[in-house]
Design goal:
The protein has 9 helices and 6 strands. With 189 residues, it is an alpha/beta fold. It has a 6-stranded mixed beta sheet with strand order 3-2-4-1-5-6, with helices on both faces. The relative contact order is 0.22.
Amino acid sequence: MQFPKIWLLRHGQTEWNAEHRIQGQLESPLTPLGIEHARRQAGLMAPVLEQKPACYASPLGRAQQTADIALKGAPFVTDARLAEAFAGVFQGMTLQEVAQRYPQIHSTNPRNLDLFCEAPGGEGYASFHGRILDFMQSLTGPSVVVAHGLWGQVMRGIICGLPRDRMAALPNGQGCVYVLENGAETVWE
């Protein structure tokens, strides 16, 4: 599959990221470090934004706050398909709490992408992958996307032709920009 050039920004660090607490589609504000992550992205994105690409952001507060800072006032469209994976009963729990309350699920899913997608009452991988692909197929030109860690792993994996296990192993940097083009990614830091 071919997609237009995409600049992907993961939201900056949140209070729950710092606590190793699963956010999923719940809200947690950016930390001072998270605000600095977004400011760093703003510096990286300045020359790109001069080209006036289409810009999109998740409806979740942490991505909206990051977009406001990193895009420096450039207009963006909020798209529900950019929300993070819905992690069912795991949302709001720390990773340690999940390990204690759901030891079988935790022990057989060591990576967050797999763990969140196996959450009881959660969205599941097939649905999550489907809505990300649907968004990607709707892009008509170079685009900036402000979203989430697991969301970005799946999108980057689709573009780079990776199987699910390799998607789940991708890093989830904050304060950087993933440039996705022609089936490959470059990381700006």
